[in-house]
## 1
Amino acid sequence: MAETLKEVGEFGLIRRIRELLEKEGAERSPDLTVGIGDDAAAFKPRPGYEILLTCDSVVEGRHYLPRFMTPREIGRRAMVLNVSDIGAMGGRPRFALVSLGLKKDTSAGVVEDIYRGFLDELNPFGASIVGGNVTASANDEFIDITLVGEAREGRVLRRSGARPGDIILVTGCPGASNAGMQLLLNGLASADNPLVAGYIRPVHLAREGAAVAESGRATSMIDTSDGFLGDLGHVCEESSVGAELILERFPISRSLRDAAALLGKDPCELFLGTSDDYELIITCPPEHVEAVRSAAAVTYAGPLTEVGRITEPGKGVRLLRADGSEEVLSAKGWDHFR
Amino acid sequence: MAETLKEVGEFGLIRRIRELLEKEGAERSPDLTVGIGDDAAAFKPRPGYEILLTCDSVVEGRHYLPRFMTPREIGRRAMVLNVSDIGAMGGRPRFALVSLGLKKDTSAGVVEDIYRGFLDELNPFGASIVGGNVTASANDEFIDITLVGEAREGRVLRRSGARPGDIILVTGCPGASNAGMQLLLNGLASADNPLVAGYIRPVHLAREGAAVAESGRATSMIDTSDGFLGDLGHVCEESSVGAELILERFPISRSLRDAAALLGKDPCELFLGTSDDYELIITCPPEHVEAVRSAAAVTYAGPLTEVGRITEPGKGVRLLRADGSEEVLSAKGWDHFR
C-alpha cells in the first residue's frame, strides 16, 4: 500500500510535506515573510538579535542505523544535533532548511515520519521548516539540515573565550552515546538500556545553553558532538589555551561503567573518546561557577561537574591522576575520514 | 602525490579549507560576528533588510558529471544554482554554508578546487562561506549548499504575485542547459559548443533579479531551474492564475535549433521542457514592461522576451499557435524521482 517516491514524484512529495508542516508544524511566525514554496524563504530579523547559522548532515549507515531506529527517531536525531549547535552558541532555533537525498523506492510515509521527527524537536521552540529540497540518491540516503537561530546581540558564546584559570564544567556524562551504539552494534543490550536509548533518542541542552549565554558569566561553550576530549580540544585550539583534567572527578555514570565492563573498555576512555553526545562543556572564572549553575538549573536537573581547569597554552590537555601522575592527552575527536 | 581525505582526515581537511577561504575568499564582512570554527556562525542583520534563505543539493552522477566537469566547475555550478535562487527573490547573497558528502579516496586538492568554484561565484558579491561540514559518503558524493541573502524590506519578489493581464517575460533561451547535457551525453558536441559550455558553466542572473525586484514594477519572478513550463507552472499554482503562451514568440536561439536537429527533437519542446537553466521568468502589468526592461538592462545585455500573458485561473497553461490552434500544456518540470 505504501506509495514510493517514484510513484508520488518529487512534486507530489513536496506537496505532502507542505501539508504535513501546515497541519503538524508550529504556528507561522509573524516575522516569516515568505515560507515554503518559493525560490527562497524570507524573514524580518528581530532588532537587537544576532542571527546564528549552522548546518550538519547525517548519512545512512554512518550516522544513523535504519535497522535500529524508526524514521521518526532518525528525524529527531538529525534535528537534535543542529538544535544543540544553536544552543551551544547561546541561541534559540527559529527556522530550518532540510535537504534530503532519498532512494526512489523509499515510501512517502517514511519521509513524512522523518519530518515528524524534525517537528518533534522544532515545535517546542515555535521554530519551523521554511525550505529545503529533496533529491534522488542512488545508494546512500542523507539528511542535511541548516538551522537558523537567534541570540541576543553581544550574548553569543563562542569556543574561543576560555582563559587560563577558568573552571571546566560539563553536563551529564559524555561518552554515553558511543557506548550505547557499541552495545547495540554488538548485540550486548537492547533499546531499554539507558545508553542505547540515549543514542537513539539524544537530548539537546539548547535551553540550558541559551540561559548560560544570557547570564553573561561563561567564557566559552561547546557541545560534545565530537566527544569530550575532541571538543575540549576545539575550545583549547580556538582559545589558544591548555587544560588540565582531574581523572577522579569525571562524572562516569553507573550505566557507562556497566557498559565499559560489557565492552571490555576503560570507562574513562569512553568518557573522553569520540562520541556524539549533546552535552555542554562550559568554561567560566571560578567566581562565576555558581551563577552558571543557577542559569542552567532553571531547566536542567542533571549534574554539572567541574572536571578541571583551563591552563596557559603550551602543555596541551593534561590528565591528572589521584596518585600524582599525569599524562598528556592527544585531542582526537570523531574524524569522518579515518 | 595527491593526499586523499583518508590521509588528511576530517580535521586536516577542515584546516585546509579554512586556510583557502582566508586566502582566496572575500574580505570578512564587518557584520559577521562569528565565522567558521564554532558550533554556528553569527551575523548582525542590517536594519531595513529581510533575510533570505535557500538551499539546494547536487548529487554526483545525477546533477553533475565528474567525467565532463572539473572540480572547480562542479563547485561553480552548485553555487550558481543557489545564487540564482537568491536573485530570483530579488536578493543578494551574503553567507553560505556548505555540506559535502565525500568518498574517502577523494583527494584533498579536488575538494579545494570545488571550494575555489564556490568562491568564483561568491567573491563578486563579497559573500563568504561561514560554515558547513564534511562527512564520508560511501558511494554517492553530494554537495549541499545553504545560501543566506538579503533584500530590502518589502522588495522581496515572490512567485505568488502574478495577476491576470500581466505580461510574461523571460530572459535568454531556457532549454539550452538540457540540450547541452544531451549533446554531451550522446557524444554529439564537445565543450566548445555554446550549449555544452552553458551546461557546464551556467550563469545566474542574480544582479538582474535584484534590480528588477528593487524597481518595484514586477509582480512575480522565478528562475527556470525546473524548466520553463515547470517554473511557469509554479508561478501559476502559487499565484492561482493561468497563462497563455504564444509559440511564435519563443526566443529559440540558433544554437538550440541546431541542437534540436542533432537530437531529433522539437526545439519548442526543448524550450518548454525540463532543463536547469538559470534564466528568469518575470511577470508585470503591460504598462511596466519598459521599467522592468530598464531595471534589468543595467547589467543584462541578452534578450528579455514577451512570450505570453497571465490569464484567469481555470484553463491552465495554454499554448497558442500562429494558425489559431491551441493546446493545454501539462506543467511538468524536472522531477527527481520519475
## 2
Amino acid sequence: MRSRKFAPSNRLEIIGIDGLPEIREGNDLTRLFLEAVEAKKLKLEDGDAIVFTSKVIAKSEDRVVDLSGVRVSGEAERIAKETEKDPRIVQLVLDEAKAVVRLMKNHVIVETKHGFVCANAGVDESNVEEGRAVLLPKDPQKSARLLKREIEERSGKAISVLISDSFGRAFRDGVMGICIGVSGIPALVDRRGEEDRFGKIAQITKEAIADEICAAVNLVMGEFREGVPIAIVRGLKLERCESDIQELLFSKEEDLFR
Amino acid sequence: MRSRKFAPSNRLEIIGIDGLPEIREGNDLTRLFLEAVEAKKLKLEDGDAIVFTSKVIAKSEDRVVDLSGVRVSGEAERIAKETEKDPRIVQLVLDEAKAVVRLMKNHVIVETKHGFVCANAGVDESNVEEGRAVLLPKDPQKSARLLKREIEERSGKAISVLISDSFGRAFRDGVMGICIGVSGIPALVDRRGEEDRFGKIAQITKEAIADEICAAVNLVMGEFREGVPIAIVRGLKLERCESDIQELLFSKEEDLFR
C-alpha cells in the first residue's frame, strides 16, 4: 500500500428552496429568494452556489408567450407537419434558433441564439398556464451575473449563481440538469498539468463543473413539477472567479456531432 | 398567488469516502468500503445510494493491462497515425469497441461492447502505474448488482449501488460524471402522466436520474486525482427497484447523432 496525498473527505449539501410564489414579470427574484431562505430558518454562507431554474428567471423577465398571438410562417408549418408538433411552438423555436440541427417526431433540435444545442430551443409548455409557453431567458449569462451581484450586495456573502435547464443528450435517453449561465465560479475546471496519484501529469481532462452542479440540483428540484425552483449547493471548494457559459460550448467546427 | 401542492423542501447530502488502499485484483471492495465508512465514524442508512468510480471496480476485477504486452494490428496502427495516439492504446480501444463512431486528433470515439458511446472506450492511463492502462469493467451492470447484494447482506441496510465514469459529451466541452451500472433504484425516472402545477399532464419527460447522481458525486470525487473513489448520496427519495443501465442507452437507430 503506497502513501497517498489527496484531499480529505469532502461533504456537500444540496438544499432545495421552495415556498416561492408563482413568479411574474418584474418580480424581484433576489428578494423572493432571500425571504424564502429566511422562512426556512437558513442562512446563506460564503461559498454557497445558488442554482435557479431557467423557468423562474424566464418568468421574471417576461419570456412567457401567449400562443394565440403567434404568427406561423410557411417554414414553421412545414416543420410542424414533419415533426407532428404545434406550428405555433415550432414558430417560437425557429425565432429562438440560430440553426436547425436535427428534426424528428415531436422534436426540433436547434442551436439557440445563445449557442445551446437542445430540443425545441428550450421552449416549454409545462408549468405555465394553458395556451402559453415559456422561452429560455434572453441572456442567461447576464441574468446570472446580475443575480449574483444583487444577492451578494443584499446578503453580504460571497456566493455564486448558476441558471439550470434540463436538456436531452446525444447517445443517452432522458433529460439531465445542465447549466445555461454561471457567475462566481468556473464553468469548466481545467485539470491539465495536475498530477495523478502516481505523479503522472494529466494531459487533457477538463471537467464541466457547472453542468455537474446543475445536474446535482435536479435531484432535489425534480424535473417536472417545479415545486423547488432554487437550490443551494454548500461545501464546494472552487476558486472564486468570473467565467462564462460560452466556455462550455463547442463551436460547430469543434463539434464532432453536428 | 395560486395554491401549490408540491413536495416539501428537500435536502441531499453527498459524502466522499476516501482512505481506501490502492485497489488490486481480487480485493474485497465491500469489506474495504465498509471499513472506510466505519473509520469515518459514519453509519450506512436505508436509502443511501453508493457510487463507486469505474476505476476501483476495474482494478478489483483485474482490468489493468500492461502496454508492453499489447500486439498492435494494422488497423490500430492506421488509426493511431490519424489520431496521433499510442498504437497500443488504440489497439485496446478497438478490442473494447463494437463500432468506431468518430475519429479526431487524440480521440477515438467508439461504441463499447456495453453500448456506451465514449472517447477511447474508457481506456485510461491516469491513476495507474506508468506503462499500464485501465479498461472499463467488463460488465459494470453485473458488478453493480453484486456489490449492492453484498453491501446489503453485510450491512443490513437497503441501499443502491451505482458505478460512475467521466465521459465527454456532444455539443459541450468538458467531461461529466455518468453512470455505467446501477442497482436498487431506477436508471431513468419516467414522469409521463405526472401533473404540472397547473394540472397539465406531462407528455414526454424522462429524467436520467442515474446520470445525475453520478454527475453530482463527481463534485466530491474530483475527476482526476481519484483520492475519493466512492461517495454516498443520502436523502434521495426514489422507489426501490431493479433497473439496468441499458434503459439509458439509445440504440443506433434511435440516436439522432450517430
